[in-house]
Amino acid sequence: MYYDVIMTGFGGQGIQTISLIVALASMEKNLEVTYLPSYGVEKRGGRTNVFVVVSDEEIGSPIINNPSALLALDIIGLEFYQNMLGKGSVLIANTSLIPEDKIKTKEGVNVLTVKINEEAIAMGNPKLANMITLGCFVEGLPFLDFNDLKGVIGTVIPARLKQTIPDNLKAIERGIEIAKGLK
Amino acid sequence: MYYDVIMTGFGGQGIQTISLIVALASMEKNLEVTYLPSYGVEKRGGRTNVFVVVSDEEIGSPIINNPSALLALDIIGLEFYQNMLGKGSVLIANTSLIPEDKIKTKEGVNVLTVKINEEAIAMGNPKLANMITLGCFVEGLPFLDFNDLKGVIGTVIPARLKQTIPDNLKAIERGIEIAKGLK
Amino acid sequence: MAHITIDADRCKGCYFCIKFCPKQLIVVSDKHNRVGYFPAQFSEGGDDLCTACKTCALMCPDTAIEVFK
Amino acid sequence: MAHITIDADRCKGCYFCIKFCPKQLIVVSDKHNRVGYFPAQFSEGGDDLCTACKTCALMCPDTAIEVFK
Amino acid sequence: MTDKKLTKGNVALAEGAIQAGCRYYFGYPITPQNDIPEYLARELPKHGGTFIPAESEIASINMVLGAGASGERAMTSSSGPGISLMQEGFSYIAGSEIPGLVVNIMRCGPGLGGISPTQGDYMQAVHGGGHGDYRNIVLAPASVQEMFDLTIRGFELADKYRMLSVILADAMVGQFQEPCRLTPDHPIVLPEKPWALKGRNGQKPKLLKSLYLGPGEQEGHNLDLQKKYDEVRANEVLCEEKLLDDAELMIVAFGTPSRIAKTAIRMAREQGLKIGLLRPITLFPFPEKQLYRHSERIKKILVVEMNTGQMLYDVKIAAHKDAKISFYGRPGGGIPFPDEVLAEIKKALE
Amino acid sequence: MTDKKLTKGNVALAEGAIQAGCRYYFGYPITPQNDIPEYLARELPKHGGTFIPAESEIASINMVLGAGASGERAMTSSSGPGISLMQEGFSYIAGSEIPGLVVNIMRCGPGLGGISPTQGDYMQAVHGGGHGDYRNIVLAPASVQEMFDLTIRGFELADKYRMLSVILADAMVGQFQEPCRLTPDHPIVLPEKPWALKGRNGQKPKLLKSLYLGPGEQEGHNLDLQKKYDEVRANEVLCEEKLLDDAELMIVAFGTPSRIAKTAIRMAREQGLKIGLLRPITLFPFPEKQLYRHSERIKKILVVEMNTGQMLYDVKIAAHKDAKISFYGRPGGGIPFPDEVLAEIKKALE
Amino acid sequence: MNRVFSRSECLTDTPTHFCPGCTHGIAHRLVAEALDELGITDRTIGIPGVGCCVFLYHYLTIDVLEAPHGRAPAVATGMKRAQPDKIIFNYQGDGDMAAIGTSEIIHAANRGENITVIFINNTVYGMTGGQMAPTTLLGQQTTTSPYGRNFQTEGYPIRMAELLATLEGVAYSARVSLHKPKNVVQAKKAIVKAFEMQINQMGFSMVELLSTCNTNWRVSPVEALDKIENEMIPYFPLGVFKERTGKDFL
Amino acid sequence: MNRVFSRSECLTDTPTHFCPGCTHGIAHRLVAEALDELGITDRTIGIPGVGCCVFLYHYLTIDVLEAPHGRAPAVATGMKRAQPDKIIFNYQGDGDMAAIGTSEIIHAANRGENITVIFINNTVYGMTGGQMAPTTLLGQQTTTSPYGRNFQTEGYPIRMAELLATLEGVAYSARVSLHKPKNVVQAKKAIVKAFEMQINQMGFSMVELLSTCNTNWRVSPVEALDKIENEMIPYFPLGVFKERTGKDFL
Ligand SMILES: Cc1ncc(C[n+]2csc(CCOP(=O)(O)OP(=O)(O)O)c2C)c(N)n1
Ligand SMILES: Cc1ncc(C[n+]2csc(CCOP(=O)(O)OP(=O)(O)O)c2C)c(N)n1
Ligand code: SF4
Ligand code: SF4
Ligand code: SF4
Ligand code: SF4
Ligand code: SF4
Ligand code: SF4
Ligand SMILES: [Mg+2]
Ligand SMILES: [Mg+2]
After folding, report:
1. Of residues E6, E256, E262, nearest to A27 (C-beta)
2. For the purposes of burial, counting CB atoms within 10 Å of the CB of B137, is it exposed (0-12), middle (13-18) or buried (19 or more)?
3. How far is the C-alpha of E93 from the C-alpha of H67, rounded, in Å?
4. E79: nearest Cα among E49, E124, E44, E47
C-alpha cells in the first residue's frame, strides 16, 4: 500500500490540523508515514502546503510530484498543484474560493467540487471547513476511516479547544456524507 | 654554473647589504639569481638569514639545504646551518663572535675563520665587518670579482651614506687580502 | 468633497487606516480578497466627510490607498 | 646597603632601568651578550647608593633584574 | 500502537544532542535549521544547560571552541552562509584538537540562495572549507531517526578523536517529520578528558594551540593529525548497502536523494531492472573500501546528488578503475524525483 | 646589463595589479603577504587609487564586492585564516557574478599555523571553501615574473567571466626575489561593463544578487553558472609542459615544488633518468586534457606538493585509468628538497 | 477631482511580501519618497541587508546590490569609494546591523564613510521567525528567549543610535518611530535629513526606525503599534543623538 | 642580604621574544603578579589574542587556550559559561580587539560576560610589522598609512575604553599606561581591580594599557615611552570610565 496527498490553502484554513490527523491516524495503524509541511519564506507568504505520504513499506521521497490526492482549499493552491495530478488521482476543490472554470485537470482525475465554506457556515461555524474537507477525503480512503480519525483527533486539537471536538467530528461525518453523495 | 650561499647573523651586522650586492652583481652578468631573505617571526627575533642562488640556467629551488658556502657572522647562525655544509663547500666564520670550538663541520669543508669584528675595528670602523666578510667570500669565487662588486655597490648603499663607499671598497679589498692569506 | 480608493487585492487587512482615520470613514469589508484577507473599504457616502487629510495613506504599509480631492 | 643583579643574557638593552634609576646606578656594558645586545650593568660600588627602590625592576620588560637588600 | 513519536528532523537532532549530554548551545538563526536553536532554547535550561543566542556564527563556533576546550560537549548549528563564516573556526578547532559538533542543514548556494533542499556543501564539509590540511567527521542522516542517532554518534566520535563532527543534512531531512524513537539505542558515557583546560590546579599548566614554530614542529603536528585521520578512516565508516548482491547497477547517494533512489529502485525492480544502493552515512570517512568492493563486480554506477557533482569526486577516486560512472544532479534546490532517477537508471544501463 | 629589476614576489604582484588598472585595494594585514598592502598603500595614491586598511578580512572581501559591482577592478589579499573568513564573500561574489581578485599567500594550517612556505589551501581555493556549487579561477605563480603576469591575467579573466580570480601562491613565491620585467607583455584594455551598478540614470534599474526564489530559478541560475565554468575549462587552461616527450615519469607540481622538481629533474637526467614535468599554472581550470594526454603514454606519475595531497585528487581524476600515481608531500611548512624528490623519483620508477 | 496622494515614482506597483501591518512597508515608502523629493533616485544605489528587507529591489525602481548578511556597510564602503558621486544607502535590520554586522557598521561609521543607513529596529530577527536580537527588550519572549530576555545571561538591549553617535565619523544619528502618523512624518524628515548629509558630504548618516514585527510578536498589527509606544520608546528614546552642522568634519 | 624583588611565581624564566623595550613584557609581569597576589593562578585560564602576545603560554605558568585572531572574547564566553568557577581572561592587542574582533568584544561586554580583558593599545598591528590600526593616531605614519593617518579617509582613532564603558554589561573599564614607574604602579592596581570584579561576579571588566611598539614606531625604546606621554595620552586620556560598585547589576 502506498498513498500520498498534498493539502494546500492559506494560513488559518486549518490545513496543519487535518494533515496531522491523517498522519497520526496512519501511524496508529503501524503504517510508515512522512509528513512535510511548508517552511521558511513560503510560510511567511501566508501559504500552508503539506505533503503526507503513507505506506506499508519504507518510504522513499517525502516530497512528491504526482500525488494520489490533492486537497485544494483555495485558488492559489489549486493553480500551483493541479497539473501534478495524474490518472486515477483525486482532487477535492473548495469551490467556495475556487471558480469552477479554474479547475483544469487531465482526464482520469476524480474531481470533487464542494462549496466547503458555505457548508461550514451552514453548520454554524466557518472554522469547520477543514474538517468537512477531511471527511470528503477520508470517504472511500483505502487505509483510514472515520473511527481512525476519531481515535487521534483528541491528540491534535489543543486542550483549550477540547469542547470543539464533537462539532469537529460532526463536520467530518458531514464531509463523508457529501463525498458519498457526489460519488 | 650553479652556486648557492647562506649568509646569517643578527640584525645590524649588515648582511642584507652584502647579500644584495652579490645578487645584483650576478644579475649584471646576466646570470639567473634568486634572493631569499628571512621574513616574519624570524625577522622579529632579530635574526637575518639570506639565501642567494646564482646560476647560468633556470634556477629551481630558491631555498637550499646544502649550500656551496655559509657566511656565519655569529654563533647562533653557525649552529643552525653548519651541519648543512657538504664536501667542497666553504664556511666563513666570524671568530670574533664564534668560539673556535663551536665549529664542527664534516671534513672536506674549507673553513675560513676570521676575527672579523677585530679586523673592522682595526680599520677604524666596526661597521665595516660585513664588507670584510664579503671580501673573504668573493676571493676565488668563480663568477664574481672585486670589480663586479664595485660596479653595483653604489646602487645598494643608500644615498645618504655615499661617502662611505670608498671605505667599504677598501674593506672588501682587505677581506680579499685576508682570504688570500689564509689559502 | 474628497474620497479615497483602496486596492482590495493589495490590502492585507492591517486596519491602520481604520484606526487612524480621524473621521472613521473606513470599515472592514465582509468578503475576503484573492489572497484571503478581509480588506478595508471606504464607507458609503464617505465622500462628504473625507477631508483628504491623507492620514490613512500615510499609515498604509501597502500603498493600497489613493486619495482624491 | 643594597644592590641589584642584571641577567646579562636576558637583558635586551632597552635601558629603561638606566633612565629611571633615581640614583643613576646603572650603565651600559661595553661587550654584547650572546644575542648581540649590549646589556645594562649595575655600576661598581653601586651597593652603597642603591636604595632597593625597585624602580629598575618595575620598569624592566624582561625581568632581568633582581633586587637585594 | 507505536512507541515512536511523529518528530521533525531538526527536533530529533536537538533532542539527540540533549540525550548525548550536550549542555551548551551557541548559535545564530538561519533558515532552514531554526527549529534546532528554538527547541534547545526551551529544553536546555530544563537540563541545567546553557543556551546563548550568539551575535554571529563566528562568535558561535568560537564559543563552541571555548566550551569544548573546557571538556564539555558543545554545539552550534547553521546553514550555508553561516557555515562558510565558521571555516576559520573549523580550522582552529581541527588544529588545536578540540571536540565539538556543528550542524549544517544545507540551503542553496552560491551566495544567499534559496532554502529548498540541496546538497551544495559536500566539498566544504568533506574536503575542508577552511585553510590547511585537516578533516571533519561528516555524518549524513537520511531519516528523522538518523537525525537523532547520528547526533549522538557525532558527539561520541568528536570526543573519541578530539575533532569536529559535522552533521550534514539537506533541508528535507531537517524539515520533514517521521515516527522516531527519541531514546538512545545504547547507554551514554561521558569520557574523561585529561587534556581539558580547567586551571593548572597545582599541576603542570596545560595548553591547547594550533601554532607550532620550532623547526619541523608544524609539519610533525600535521603528520600526527593525518595519522589520526587514517585511524578514523580505518574504524568509523558507516554506510547502508541495499539490494547490491544481484545488482547490475549501483546507485550511490546520501541524504534525501538516497530516499528518492529507493523509490526509483522499487520502480525499477518492478520493471525487472536489478538496481542496488550504496548510501554513505559517514561522508568522512568515506566508504571507499565498500564502494571499491562492490564496483569490482558492479561496473555501472549512478551517482545522484542535489548538486552539480561533489560526492562524485570521491566516488570516482574510490571506485574500481573500470567502473562506468554516470551522474544525475539537481543543484540549487531542484529535487530529482523518482521518475527522473528511473530514466537515468535506464540511460546508464544502455 | 638587464632590463629586469630584482623584485620580491609580493611586490611584483602588487605592481602587476596597478599595471592591470586595479585602483582599489581593501585589506587586513597578515604575514606572509604584508608587502602587498604596504606597497599599494604607498603606490596607489600616486595613481589616483584608493587604499583602505579595512577592519577585517570579511570587510575587505565585501568592499571588493562593492567596488567590483561598481565596475572597477578591485582586490584584496590575505593568507590562510583570513581567506577562510572570506569564504562567505567568495560564495556571494560567485553567486552574483561580480569580478574581483583575491590573493592568498598561503601559510601553514590548520588553525593559526606557522608562516613557512606551504600549499594547504588548494582544496579551499579550487573546490570551493564556501557554500554551494561555485568556482573561482585559480592561478598558481611559480616565479616572481608570474606573480606580475598572472595578476594581470587574473584581473582580465575575472572581468571576462564575471567571477573571482584567486592568486594562490606559497610564501616562498611571495617572499623571494628574482629579476623581473615590470611592464605588461600586452596592452591593457579595460572592458565595458554594462551590468555594473551606477544608478538607473533614466534607464531600467539594474540588480546584482544571488538569491532566486521563483520555482526552478535558483536551479536555473546554478546551471547557467556551470555553463560558464565549462567555458572557462574549455578556454583558459594554462600549464607548463617540460621534458615530457621522452619522459618515463611525469612529475606534477605547482608553485615552489615545481621549481624544486626542476632541480630534481636536472639531477635525475644527469643520472640518465628520463623525467619530465607538468606544471599546472591554472588550478581551476585544471589542465585535465593535457594531463590525460601525457598519461596515456607516461604511465608513471609523481605528484609533489607542500601538503598532504590535495591537487592529488584532481590528478587522479584527470589521469588515464592505468596510470600509476605516487605522491610525495611535506605539509605544515616542510620543504621537499631536491634530493628528497630525486629519491621519490627512483622509488616511483621501481 | 484629482489625485492628491498616490505611490511615489520610485515605488513599483508590486505588492510586498511583508506580513499584514508590517511597518517595513511604511519605511520603504518613506525612503522612496525621500529619494524622489531630493531628486536623487536616478543616481542612487540601494544595498539592503539580509532580512525581511532583502527584496528591496522588488519595490524600489533603483539599482540594487545584494550584500551578505550584516556586511552592507562594507559593501557600501567599496561602492561609495568607487563612485563618490553616487548616493549609496544601506537598509538594515537589527539582526543585520546590531548583531552579525556590528563590526562593519562601527568601522564604516568610524571612518566617516559618506553613506546613509536606514536601520529598522523591530527587536527581533523577523525574517527567520522572530528570534532574540541584541535589541530585544528585557523580559521579551521570543523563540530563542522563551522565558524572556534576562539581562544576567543575555545582557541589556543595545542602543545603536546612541552607540554610533559617540563616533567622531558620524554626521547624523537619530531614532524615530513608525507607530503613529505624526511619528511617520518625523521619520520622513529624518530620512530626508540623512540623505542630505550624504549629498553635502558630511560623512556617515544613520536613522534608526522603531518598527513592528507583529507576526513574531504574536499580536495584531494595531496592537503592535501600541507596543512601540508602550514598550519600545521607554527603552529606545526618540531623538537626534548627533547632527553635524557645517563642515567642521571636513 | 635577601632578595626583595624577583620574578613572580606565575612567570616562567623563558626569555621573551619581545623586541627590546617592548612594554608587553611589563604587562605580562603585571598580570602574573596580580594572579599570584590574588591567589587565583591555579584556577585561571588565559586566552591571548593573536598578536605579539600570542606566546603568553611561554611566559605564564597557567593553562592557556589559543583563540583565532579577534575571537578571544567569544572563546572566553564559551569557557566561562562552561566553568563559571574559573577565572578567565583575554589578553588582546588593538588589532585583535579594536579591528577584527570588534563584534566579539562589544557583544561579550554587552552580555556582561564575567570575564577580564587586558587590552594592549600600541596604536599598530605590532606582530605583522606595524600596520595602521583603528587606534593609530591622526597623522601617524605606518606601513599602511605611509602618508600619515587622515581622518577624512580613515576616520579618527577609536577609544575602546570609552566605547565599552557605554554598555550596561560592563562592570569596569579603565585606561592606564606603562610608560613611567608611577603609571606602571597604577596599571597594576587597575589589573588587580579588574580581576576582583570577576572574582566578585560583577560582570565584564577591561583594562586598556597604553603600550609601546618602538620597533614599528621606528624609535628607541626610551623615545617610545616619551611618545606615550606626548602623543598617546593627549588623545587617549587615562582614567576609569566605568566602575560598578555594589551588585546593582546582579
Ligand atoms: C550569514 C548569515 N547568517 C544568518 C542568516 C539568516 N538570516 C537571514 S535574515 C536574518 C535576520 C533578520 O533579522 P533583521 O536583520 O532584524 O531583519 P528583519 O527581518 O527583522 O527586518 C538572519 C539571521 C543569513 N542569511 N546569513
Ligand atoms: C584572521 C587573521 N587575520 C590576520 C592575522 C594576522 N595577524 C596576526 S597578529 C595581527 C595583529 C596584531 O596586532 P595587535 O592585535 O595590535 O597586537 P600587537 O602585536 O600590536 O600587540 C594580525 C593582523 C591573523 N593571524 N588572523
Ligand atoms: S492600511 Fe492599507 S493595508 Fe492596512 S487595512 Fe488599510 S488599506 Fe489595507
Ligand atoms: S483622507 Fe483622511 S479623512 Fe479621508 S479617509 Fe483618509 S484618513 Fe480618513
Ligand atoms: S630594563 Fe631590563 S632589559 Fe632593559 S636594559 Fe635594563 S635590564 Fe636590560
Ligand atoms: S633599586 Fe632603585 S636605586 Fe637600586 S638600582 Fe634599582 S632603581 Fe636604582
Ligand atoms: S516577519 Fe516581521 S518584519 Fe518580517 S515582514 Fe513579517 S512582520 Fe514584517
Ligand atoms: S613588534 Fe612591537 S609589539 Fe611586537 S614585540 Fe616588537 S615592539 Fe613589542
Ligand atoms: Mg529585526
Ligand atoms: Mg597593537
Report:
1. E6
2. buried
3. 10
4. E124
Ion ligand 10 residues within 5 Å by Cβ: H 93-94, 122, 126
The CA distance from E282 to E254, in Å, is: 9
- How far apart are the CA of C37 and the nearest CA of chain G, in angstroms? 9
Cell of G115: 553613506
The residue whose grid cell reads 570575564 is H115
Residues C58, G183: Cα–Cα separation, whole Å: 11
Q: What does the DSSP 8-state code read for residue H10?
A: T
Query: How far is residue F158's CA from residue F93's CA, in Å, rounded to a whole number?
Result: 11
**CB neighbourhood size of F321 (10 A):** 11
C-alpha distances (whole Å) from E347 to each of E275, E342, E350, H169 are 13, 9, 6, 64
- Terminal alpha carbon distance of chain F: 46
**With an 8 Å Cβ cutoff, is E57 touching chain G?**
yes
User: Is residue A130 within 8 Å of residue A181, measured between CB atoms?
Assistant: no
Distance CA D20, CA D58 (A): 10
**What is the structure's pLDDT at D36?**
78
Cβ atoms E48, E72 nearer than 8 A = no
Q: What is the residue-wise DSSP string for F273-294?
A: --EEEEEESEEES--HHHHHHH
What would the grid cell of residue E58 be? 563566528
Which DSSP state fits G40? -
Residues of A with CB under 8 A from a CB of G: 41, 44-46
Burial class (CB in 10 A: 0-12, 13-18, 19+), B86: middle
Average per-residue pLDDT in chain H? 97
Task: Check CB contact of F266 with chain B, cutoff 8 Å.
Answer: yes
Partner residue facing F205 (CB), from G64, G66, G111:
G64
Q: Using CA atoms, how far apart are residues C53 and G75, in angstroms rounded to an integer?
A: 40
The pTM for the full model equals 0.97
Distances in whole angstroms, Cα of residue H145 to Cα of each of E269, G232, H133: 71, 43, 10
Residue E258's H or E segment, with its range, is: helix E256-270
CA H132 remoteness from chain centre: 18
Beta-bridge partner residues of H48: H91
Q: How far is the CA of H129 from the centre of ligand 8 (A)?
A: 8
| pLDDT tens, residue by residue, C37-59 | 899 999 999 999 999 999 999 99
Q: ipTM surpassing 0.95, yes or no?
A: yes
Distance CA F213, CA E115 (A): 9
N- to C-terminal Cα distance for chain G? 50
d(CA B5, CA A89): 84
Residues E199-218: tens digit of each pLDDT: 999 999 999 999 998 889 99
- Specify the pLDDT at position G250: 46
The position carrying cell 590574588 is H38
Instruction: Quote the pLDDT of residue E1.
Output: 43
Please provide the DSSP assignment of A147-160 as one string: HHHHHHHHHHS-GG
pLDDT at B45 exceeding the cut of 80: no
Interior/surface letters A66-86, b for 16+ CB within 10 angstroms, e for the rest: ebbbbbbbbbbbbebbbeebe
